[in-house]
């Protein structure tokens, strides 16, 4: 393939633009915020699970407290009824003895229930404190996630802006090349990563490998307008007069 040496030299400009575009693509895939967000999301899920667990425990204790309070109220109502019967003086001796025994039993039962209720309320208070702590931890995890997300979005916006500028620049630079040369360049870049590089003394500027004697001789003998490529990586070698 033939191409004016001046046109070939412009391939280096195109390669520079493509290198910058490749950096944008690489940067987009490897933003540190991406890993940070993944870890933050895991932490948020863990904190949400912890809060759900402690809230479930608090709910169970709350229902148990209500059940205990209801049972105590029922015992108290029974005690009140029995006292009224005793005070009414309308019961016989046997019933009187039974009522007194029942009142004593109800008193012990109420005392035991009240002790249990006190223990339940202390447990619920401790669990409520755990729930509050879990909410604070979840809020912190969510705030960290939001912060990382904002920084990622800002970085992506900058990369998109850079990409748009470089893409527009590439369109202008690529417009100076004949179609066959541009197609060759793009094909090499797609498969090898670098489409064109400067020939530096004895080495390819793309793969940095020194050319052997036969390759150097062929390169030296090639006409200035001949499009030559590196035998190792396939990149188009751009020869500069002082190199």
From TrEMBL:
List, alphabetically, the InterPro entries matched. CT398_CC_hairpin, Oxidative_Scav/Glycosyltrans, Zf-RING_7
**One Pfam family cited in the UniProt record for this chain:** CT398_CC
tRNA processing found in the keyword field: no
Ranges for the CT398-like coiled coil hairpin domain?
14-193
Give the keywords, sorted.
Coiled coil
Provide the C4-type zinc ribbon domain boundaries: 203-237
**Coiled-coil region list:** 58-165
Can you name this protein? Answer: C4-type zinc ribbon domain-containing protein
């Amino acid at each position: 393939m033939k191409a004016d040496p001046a046109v070939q030299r412009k391939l280096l400009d195109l390669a520079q633009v493509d290198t910058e575009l490749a950096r944008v693509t690489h940067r987009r895939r490897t933003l540190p915020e991406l890993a940070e967000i993944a870890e933050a999301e895991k932490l948020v899920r863990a904190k949400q699970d912890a809060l759900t667990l402690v809230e479930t425990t608090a709910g169970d204790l709350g229902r148990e407290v209500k059940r205990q309070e209801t049972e105590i109220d029922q015992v108290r109502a029974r005690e009140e009824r029995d006292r009224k019967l005793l005070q009414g003086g309308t019961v016989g001796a046997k019933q009187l003895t039974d009522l007194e025994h029942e009142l004593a039993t109800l008193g012990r039962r109420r005392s035991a229930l009240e002790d249990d209720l006190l223990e339940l309320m202390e447990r619920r208070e401790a669990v409520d404190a755990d729930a509050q702590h879990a909410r604070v931890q979840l809020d912190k995890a969510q705030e960290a996630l939001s912060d990382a997300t904002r920084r990622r979005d800002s970085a992506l916006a900058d990369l998109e802006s850079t990409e748009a500028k470089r893409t527009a620049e590439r369109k202008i630079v690529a417009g100076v090349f004949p179609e066959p040369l541009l197609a060759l360049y793009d094909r090499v870049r797609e498969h090898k990563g670098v489409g064109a590089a400067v020939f530096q003394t004895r080495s390819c500027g793309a793969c940095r490998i020194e050319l052997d004697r036969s390759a150097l001789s062929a390169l030296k003998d090639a006409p200035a307008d001949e499009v030559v490529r590196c035998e190792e990586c396939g990149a188009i070698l751009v020869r500069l007069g002082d190199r």
